[in-house]
Amino acid sequence: MLKASNLEVVYDDVVLALRGVSVQIPDGAIVALLGANGAGKSTLLRALTGLLDIHDGEITKGQVSLDDRSLNDVNPEKIVTAGVRQVLEGRRLFVELTVEENLKVGAHTARAEMAANLERVYDLFPKLADRRAQTAGYLSGGEQQMVAMGRALMSGPRYLLLDEPTLGLAPLMVEMIRDVIVTINEAGTGILLVEQNATMALSIARHGYVMENGRVVLDRPAAELLRNDDVREFYLGLHPGEDGRKSFREIKHYRRKKRWSA
Ligand code: ATP
C-alpha cells in the first residue's frame, strides 16, 4: 500500500500547499484524485515521488509510506527502484531522441529487464512499435502521452502516478488512454490518476479523493462520487453557475443554503 498520512507540505518555507492530506493507494487499485487548479494535486504527487526538493518544497508534518516504510527522506531514484513511478504532466519527452531512445531512458533503474519491458510497452502501444525510430518531437499529443507512459513502465513499477494524462487530447485518444490505464492496472499496477476529466477517472477508479485548497474535502468510493450532487455540479458541469465555475466549497455552501431555504 502506498500512503500519505496527515501530510503537510510547505514551499519556500512559507507557502502552505498541503494541510493534513491523507490518501491511500492499495496494491492493484485505481484511485482518482480530483481538484481545481492549485488544489494541491501535483504537490501530493511530488511528495509521493520524492520530487519536492527540486521545487523548494518540504514535508513539514506527516508521512509518505510504502508498505509502512517511510519515504519522507528517500531520494527520487530510490523511490523509483522501490516501485513508485510518476508520469509528469505535460509529457516532457526528449524531443530530439527517437521513441525507442526515450523508452530506454526510462529503464535506467531496471536495465536487466529492459528487453522484456520494451516488448510489453510495444504490446500495449502497437503504434509506438511502428514509430520506434521516429523523432519523439514529431509525434501527436496522444502519441507523446503514450511514450511518456511507456517510459514510466520501463522500470516495471508497482504504482504508476499519472498527472492529467488526457489533458488536451481528442476524445478518441482519451478513450484509448483510458483503456490503456485499465490494461496496465489489470496487469497488477496500482494507479493514482490525477484528472480534470472526472467522468473518465471515476468511471475506472475504485476510490476517489477531491482536493481543495490543500485539503481532501471528499474521500469516497468512486461510484459514490459519480452520484454526488456537488461533484456532478462542479466537475461534470451538469449545472454550471451563471457566473462561470464556482469553487467546490462555494457550490456546497450554495446548495446547503438552497436546502435550508427550501
Ligand atoms: P494544477 O492542476 O494547476 O497543477 P494542483 O492541484 O496540481 O494544480 P499544485 O500545483 O500542487 O496544485 O499547487 C498547490 C499550491 O502550491 C498552489 O497554491 C501553488 O501556487 C503552490 N505551489 C505549487 N508549486 C509551487 C512552487 N514550486 N513554489 C511555490 N508554490 C508552489
Spatially, the strands of the biggest sheet line up as 6-7-8-3-9-10
Strand content: 25-35%
CATH superfamily label of the largest domain:
P-loop containing nucleotide triphosphate hydrolases
**CATH topology assignment of the largest domain:** Rossmann fold
The main β sheet shows up as:
6 strands, mixed
CATH-defined architecture of the largest domain: 3-Layer(aba) Sandwich
The SSE string, one letter per element, is EEEHEEHEHHHHEHEHEEHHH
Distance between the termini: 44 Å
Indicate the mean pLDDT: 89
Count of discrete structural domains: 3
Look at the structure and give the CATH class of the largest domain: Alpha Beta
Q: How would you classify the helix and strand content by structural class?
A: alpha/beta
Quick tags:
262 residues, alpha/beta, Rossmann fold, six-stranded mixed beta sheet, four-stranded antiparallel beta sheet, 11 helices, 39% helix, 25% strand, disordered C terminus, binds adenosine-5'-triphosphate
Summarize the structure.
With 262 residues, the protein is of the alpha/beta class. The chain has eleven helices and ten strands. The protein folds into three domains: 1-83 and 157-225, P-loop containing nucleotide triphosphate hydrolases (Rossmann fold), CATH 3.40.50; 96-154, no CATH class; 228-262, no CATH class.
